[in-house]
Amino acid sequence: MTAHEIDYQIFGEEMQYVEIELDPQEIVIAEAGSFMMMDNNIQMQTIFGDGSHQQSGIFDKLLSAGKRVLTGESMFMTAFINQHHGKGKVSFASPYPGKILPIDLTEFQGKFICQKSSFLCAAKGVSVGIEFSKKIGRGLFGGEGFIMQKIEGDGMAFVHSGGTLAKKELKAGEVLKVDTGCIVGFTKDVDYDIEFIGGIKNSIFGGEGLFYATLRGPGTVYVQSLPFSRLADRIIASAPKAGGNSRDEGSLLGGLGNLLDGDNRF
């Protein structure tokens, strides 16, 4: 299916959102919970799966939706349709601080592989499926498990990342080593595997886990500086404990420092 051609504009710095302009009868699909705002002439519909196989039978639709469940997503997605004779706009927001990455699938040979839950929205006709890992080590220790998301088609898609986004162009045979949680996505020709860090001190006291990802070119790799899991861990570690105690990270005065800076929780 040929994807709808959509125009877009990304706003913001740390908390971005993407505004998509739809011509009459154009459609954009999105994950539930990413919607921000839309013009009055845009209509919202809940669809089964990603909507890329609407002419298929019920079994194909169930299979498409079932694949999404394996990646931890809902069986349903939301479609936004411009039912007016003029142009209309709809916007989708990133769920946490970071960057929105626009992906023109025609520039990546029709396929892009990304981490689970990174997909934000795409033009109607783009397929959002799963990519199984064929390597046991990668599946067990690669941070993303046996399953990653794959985005296929010939239209525009948008994924989000945490923190600052880095783009790396790898030549044939060139290897990039990355923290397993920092991978946003990569093109289909990149070979992805995991490698043991090695060394007793590194493994026990390094604080960086036991494995890192190795990505071998040729291809394009996108890396994020702040994975959501790392952000969530920091928030949980700094949250007030029972009795009103906090972590007091970086403070020499501890609880006394809270009294001096006005953070008086009793």
Question: What does this entry look like structurally?
Answer:
The chain is α+β, with helices and mostly antiparallel strands and 266 residues long. It is built from 5 helices and 19 strands. The protein has a 6-stranded antiparallel β-sheet with strand order 5-6-3-10-13-8. A 6-stranded antiparallel β-sheet has the order 11-12-9-16-19-14. Strand 1 and strand 2 form a beta hairpin. It is globular and about 60 Å long. 34% of the residues are buried.
Please give the count of helices: 5
Largest sheet: 6 strands, antiparallel
Low-confidence stretches: 259-266
Mean pLDDT over the residues: 79
Alpha-carbon distance between the two ends: 60 Å
Series of secondary-structure elements, N-terminal to C-terminal:
EEEEEHEEEEEEHEEEEEEHEEHH
Approximate helicity band: 10-25%
Spatial strand arrangement across the major sheet: 5-6-3-10-13-8
**How does the helix and strand content classify structurally?**
alpha+beta
Overall spatial form: globular
Strand content: 35-45%
The beta-strand count equals 19
Summarize this entry quickly.
The chain has helices spanning 58-70, 136-141, 200-205, 228-238, 255-261; strands at residues 7-11, 17-22, 27-30, 35-38, 42-48, 76-82, 88-93, 98-104, 111-114, 119-123, 127-132, 147-152, 156-162, 165-170, 175-178, 183-187, 191-196, 211-216, 219-224. The chain is an alpha+beta fold and 266 residues long.
